[in-house]
Amino acid sequence: MKEGPVITTSTAPEAPAAAAAAAxxxxxxxxxxxxxxxxxxLAPAFALLVVTVGLVMTVGQMGRSxxxxxxxxxxxxxxxxxxxxxxxxxxxxxIRDQDLTLRRSYFRALERNxxxxxxxxxxxxxxxxxxxxxxxxxxxxxxxxxxxxxDREPDARxxxxxxxxxxxVFGATFLVMGLTERTHLPRNLAALxxxxxxxxxxxxxxxxxPGAPAVAVSAMPSAQQWARNWPGFRGPDGSGVSxxxxxxxxxxxxxxxxxxxxxxxxxxxxxSPVVWExxxxxxxxxxxxxxxxxxxASSGAIRWQRPVTPLNAPVPGVEPPEQSGAAASxxxxxxxxxFAVFASGELGALDFEGHLVxxxxxxxxxNGYGHASSLVVWQDRLLVQADQGRDEDNKSSLMALDVxxxxxxxxxxxxVGGSWATPLVVAAGGKTQVITAGDPLLMAHDVxxxxxxxxxxxxxxxxAPSPAFGxxxxxxxSPGRQFTALKVDGSGDVTxxxxxxxxxxxxxxxxxxxVFGGLIYTASTEGMVICRELGTGVKVWEHNFEMExxxxxxxxxxxxxxxxxxxxxxxxxxxxxxxxxxxLKMGDEVYASPAVAGDRLFVRTRKLLYCLGASAGPTQVAxxx
Length: 625
Fold this sequence. Notes:
Layout: H1 16-23, H2 29-34, E1 36-37, E2 40-41, H3 42-63, H4 73-84, H5 89-131, H6 153-180, E3 207-208, H7 223-228, E4 241-242, E5 259-264, E6 274-276, E7 279-285, E8 290-296, E9 302-306, E10 332-333, E11 337-341, E12 346-351, E13 356-361, E14 376-378, E15 381-386, E16 396-402, E17 408-414, E18 424-428, E19 431-438, E20 441-446, E21 452-456, E22 468-470, E23 473-478, E24 482-487, E25 492-493, E26 499-503, E27 514-516, E28 519-523, E29 528-533, E30 539-544, E31 554-556, E32 559-563, E33 568-573, E34 580-585, E35 595-597, E36 600-604, E37 608-612, E38 623-624
Parallel strand pairs: 4-31, 5-38, 21-25
Antiparallel strand pairs: 1-2, 3-13, 5-37, 6-7, 7-8, 8-9, 10-11, 11-12, 12-13, 14-15, 15-16, 16-17, 18-19, 19-20, 20-21, 22-23, 23-24, 24-26, 27-28, 28-29, 29-30, 31-32, 32-33, 33-34, 35-36, 36-37
Helix pairs in contact: 3-5, 3-6, 4-5, 5-6
């Protein structure tokens, strides 16, 4: 005879919790007590919570604007309007109100998402826990039980369906949020320039400016692009030599012959123009204002003028040094952004439409003549030589900043005092070296890491001329002390081992030397121009123009261009024989070194910026004010 199922009975009725514990000992008794409230199972209640919160978050996420408040087109338009109407209080209030509203809305949405996420997480955990007490989902009892009654199957089926639906909504919600949520934080280093974030100017770190548009991260310009433009002080490689063969050798600013255009620059500056394709950049400044100017290279029209501080940030007043002014440093460009620095310590990047990308403030307070070292771009790095104080003060440094963000790639302290020279990047000795001049050291650093490569104690005093390079020799001038040619393939202290030659007289004091064709050309503030052999330092010729010269010489088309402070320009044939080709006039004082792009020569006088080149006559002159 077949045995039937074993049935256990109890003579005393059990409470629900005790029965649940007896049926499934793996579940604590307390779970059975709290699995129902008022006779209703809690699992369906938490399933309903998960479904409701999930749907609300999904709908809200898909309907919410994906733009961070600082990318608002309306806010950007209001800021542009303020630039043209700086005293319009109504526009200022509109910007403040709009910015506050956008930020409140944005961060409220973030808070709602955060609260919803916690509710989903808590509800999901509770659903999983209490669903174990729901008929049809809990584990079978360890004792033999009668076959489940058919009328309990619908309950089990409903339980499974509810849990599956709630779990599906739970997972789908987080999937939607993960795929659609955009963060204001960058995904990686390359995205830093695409996703500007957060606040005002900071020190010593850089600050990506709220509202700054994305600047595409693209490859560095080709060698051909770099060579045909003038991206920084003294051109593509800092040598002052242009490959152009068609730079003009004659013009007349009085009649307009050879003058393509001239433009008045409202703020003074000793810095040189920089040219990239259809744009010309330069800066100007005084006690109250420091601006970057962008001009159209074809017409001379001013496209825009901007500060390198946010519009709503206070600009400290400074007393510009008389010798160099507030804007002595020449800007630099990487073909996508333009970088500018002022004697007040303001340093920043703007895109080619004039939008501020990043900015920071440096301390130049210990530089007696004001900061005048120009910026240099090498690949994706911006080099800043910040020499000040005395060599024992340990206040000087050389920095490489990421061009996209302004954040330091490396910073190295320099045991030198204040100087006004610009760094020179050269490929020599199997390395790419950044060569710098500062009292008392001529030094080289590895451009990739900032590590010191070599040093030579050959300088001293007030250093304005920048180094020059050719045939494995760096040429450095220490006014009133020493003119030195140094081999650049050494390491450590090379003062005694690597000097090729040195002179203690006829030393250039302000204009930087220029190397071309195995010869060195120097100019002094007294107007003495000297040509020497590069390998030996032996004098080849000299000529005294008897006019003060502040601008550095330039070579184009194998011709030497010399600009005297009163505005006289002398064109001399390069080579071992002195031969003057032209004597011209600018009609105003010239302090800045010129720039060349194609067949055009760009010259900054005290008040005007000139574009000189082929012209049909006076009617071609554009005087844009």
